[in-house]
UniProtKB/TrEMBL annotation, chain A:
This is Glutamyl-tRNA(Gln) amidotransferase subunit A. PROSITE patterns: AMIDASES. Belongs to the amidase family. GatA subfamily. Residues 26-474 form the Amidase domain. It catalyses: L-glutamyl-tRNA(Gln) + L-glutamine + ATP + H2O = L-glutaminyl-tRNA(Gln) + L-glutamate + ADP + phosphate + H(+). Heterotrimer of A, B and C subunits. Keywords: ATP-binding, Ligase, Nucleotide-binding, Protein biosynthesis. It comes from the Bacteria. The active site is at residues 79, 160, 184. Its EC number is 6.3.5.7. Gene3D superfamilies: Amidase signature (AS) domain.
From TrEMBL, chain B:
The keyword Ubl conjugation does not apply. Belongs to the GatB/GatE family. GatB subfamily. InterPro entries: Asn/Gln-tRNA_amidoTrfase_suB/E (IPR017959), Asn/Gln-tRNA_Trfase_suB/E_cat (IPR006075), Asn/Gln_amidotransferase (IPR018027), Asn/Gln_tRNA_amidoTrase-B-like (IPR003789), GatB (IPR004413), GatB_Yqey_C_2 (IPR023168), Gln-tRNA_amidoTrfase_suB_CS (IPR017958), Gln_synth/guanido_kin_cat_dom (IPR014746). The gene is gatB. Residues 339-486 form the Asn/Gln amidotransferase domain. Keywords: ATP-binding, Ligase, Nucleotide-binding, Protein biosynthesis. It is an enzyme of class 6 (ligase). Heterotrimer of A, B and C subunits. This is Aspartyl/glutamyl-tRNA(Asn/Gln) amidotransferase subunit B. It catalyses: L-glutamyl-tRNA(Gln) + L-glutamine + ATP + H2O = L-glutaminyl-tRNA(Gln) + L-glutamate + ADP + phosphate + H(+); L-aspartyl-tRNA(Asn) + L-glutamine + ATP + H2O = L-asparaginyl-tRNA(Asn) + L-glutamate + ADP + phosphate + 2 H(+). It comes from the Bacteria. NCBIfam families: gatB, PRK05477.1-2, PRK05477.1-4, PRK05477.1-5.
Amino acid sequence: MTDLTDLGIAAIRDGVRAGDFSAREVATAFNARVAGAKTLNAFLVETPEHALAAADEADRARAAGEAPKPLAGVPIGMKDLFCTNGVATTAASEILAGFVPPYESTVSQNLWDAGAGMLGKLNMDQFAMGSSNETSAFGNVISPWRRKDGGNAPLAPGGSSGGSSAAVAARLCPGATGTDTGGSIRQPAAFTGISGIKPTYGRCSRWGTIAFASSLDQAGPMARDVRDCAIMLEAMAGFDAKDATSLQLDVPRWEARLSSDLKGKRVGIPKEYRVDGMPAEIETLWQQGVDWLRDAGAEIVEVSLPHTRYALPAYYIIAPAEASSNLARYDGVRYGLRDLPEGAGLQDMYAATRADGFGAEVKRRIMIGTYVLSAGFYDAYYTQAQKVRTLIARDFEQAWERCDVLLTPTAPSAAFALGEKSADPIAMYLNDVFTVPSSLAGLPAMSVPGGLDGAGLPLGLQIIGKPLDEQGVLNAGLAIEERAGFAARPEGWW
Amino acid sequence: MSDYRIQGDTGEWEVVIGLEVHAQVTSNAKLFSGSATAFGAEPNTQVSLVDAAMPGMLPVPNRECIRQAVRTGMAIDAQINRWSRFDRKNYFYADLPQGYQISQLYHPLVGEGHLDVSPDDKNPEAVKRIGIERIHVEQDAGKLMHDQHPTRSYVDLNRSGVALMEIVSRPDMRSPAEAGAYLTKLRSILRYVGSCDGNMDQGSMRADVNVSVRKPGEPLGTRTETKNVNSVRFVMQAIEHEAKRQVALLEEGGTIVQETRLFNPDTGQTRSMRSKEDAHDYRYFPDPDLLPLELDEAFVAECRASLPELPDAKRQRYEAAGVSAYQAGVLTAEVESARWFDALLAAGAPGAQAANWVSSELFGALNRLGKGIEESPVSPSAAAELLALVADGTLSGSLAKQVFEVMLETGEAPAAIVEARGLKQTSDTGAIDVVIADVIAKNPNQLAQYRGGKEALFGFFVGQTMKAMGGKANPGVVNERLKAMLAG
């Protein structure tokens, strides 16, 4: 029998339905795999009992002849940004140390309702702020991938959903939830050779997901291939009256409508994404992607997104501005960390609690956000950034007159070594250069693995789609996936 | 138009007043959560995950709160903004779980409107128009309790997230009386509309009072803002004290500091709370958890259709029905009395007679009983029956008073009382003539004087006749017969 942990979501689902193996066998295999991978530090909390309970329910339902749920028998990993009822949730920050939510996020509840089980809570950059997982208060995740140079330097799994990317790549789970504010699903997916999709803003409810930047935050799946992403996204998405920005739309049947035949489709290549200093290997892969999509029947057109270079600065104003306000609630009064020095008053308690509880990158962004919203600076920064955001969205709208999807690289480099960029925030922020514009415009976008670089590390290609056209994105992703034939996987060194 | 002036050593000073009124929206649920809003509940029993700002919680606007604010805007003839937006006002305090208050700085729900007030009771026709700049909706904060523990403060979040309307006037008022009249009228309108219960002693309506002084004709002076004043009388006191303080300070050669002040109801004085230099930078920005609020035609139409008749329109209608301007003002000041009076009119009572009766008889009786009109033991329909018995001559005015007393005590219907106690007035000229003849026969001296030209004695004969008939004679018939018989 094959190792069950080598199977993806669709294979597990179908195998459990067919009775090839039981859901309990699957959960048991993944629980063991998680337990044996502590070196990677991908999980903050392991919940083997949760996975087993869901598995037993799936087995019971099958034995009783009940109609199978969409994810019956599939265990997944849950990013620690999602509040899970009775299971510690910290957003990888000390300030939420000991916080156990008495409620379940809508996205995680949707997954449990679909029959999935939880293997554990996944490590991440603190409050989803970071591109390398090094801002976690509980130690960084180590990528399962290593360069072929024999140096064994520990690599970043990307961020902020780095626990999710590492866990899926290392076969600790067949799929995991991620969240994407400026690229936090797509960049780690690219770094670890897996697929991940950020849907249109509003597809997945934000209720119960710890907020970073409300106007940008979107949940999405990270999995081994495009089909698995489609299956998982169907379970996660849906209208939620508890989120005022949730889209009141039915969830399309993305999996059933997957098709890699792109005849009649036009793929836009935005010329502004050819940035200085981009490694030749990424340039080459991008061209390869163009050829694959042409081979799939698509027409290739060059398009212009003229305001692209303003996207990153605008993002690093808007996201910190929202974060500075969203994170004000962590004040030591009602939950989480409270640091009350002897004889301290209210203001001292705030200062001590927040100084101790937040990591350096979180503090940096709170400071930036506070600054750009301050009297006298608001118009120069925040208002200006909102104008840029409007222009970015208009760029895309104009591009859609000429094409159906856009193809770009996901990130400007392959995975870097841990510590390599942590001293230089700007270098770290530049990792988001290709993912941020579609986040600002609220568009669906996904990363699929395209190949390996010279050091043997995965590189990803990004597909950006029209609002609500996750299907077009998934289909183009599938066309690449079929042609790239990406089968590389990290060696199990841990 | 106000000639209110502060007499200083250097001459007369004019007072300029603007009010920001916070009115708690009448709604079963909070502005952005489903929690209840009842006053006086046990601490922290009306708090949802959203109100406590738990991680990942999101606000969802409550339609009813928006509706009430829109209806209020319509009641002050204001512009209703079809597109408005919520902003966050950021500051740290223990009674503010989110670390920000959701409010509307840049694009309020309701724009420019106005209120016509009559500051002078003796001259209700003298109307002054007070401009209203805007009404926006926002969240209330929780409450700190400092008296529960020797060294700690406790927080009650029941009020956290309750919907408030902030109603911002123009600096159009020039005297404490005008400010008092504005606040009274505004409260009345809110209660008519049903968007706020107006209970100032429970804090569901409170005012921030902006006051400055200047020599008449000069530009506006620097203002101070006295926070959270919670009665009409206190608002008037605070203005008077603050204006006098400012005049004294300016005349000493001092300058007014733009600052926030507190009113002390025990002393009637204001004191400094914090100056502009200490003011927070609230870092307002659009709340990214909420989409802009867009009102569709049907919603606005429903709001308008659901508006009741408002005090000014009612007053005009009452006046057209023959009610005096003064009484119309009194009857419409409180929604409960207007409702009662409307029911009385609807039951067929004629305007002028009904207004006189309500103003003297009913209000007098309720005063004696210490009851509000909504608790009146006599219903409008019973009162209408009573008035009808007067109108058709069954009862005289004095008999009607007797019947009303019985109604107040027993709740019986007036016709039944008249029947059972034989209180019916008589218009039988034969019977009346017999009594008059007897009265004349018994008072020959008075008759001689009357016939000699002392006509004031007519009243004496009326009184004697009514007395002899136990008050049940129709006064009109008595007058008519007496005149004839006294003439001989």
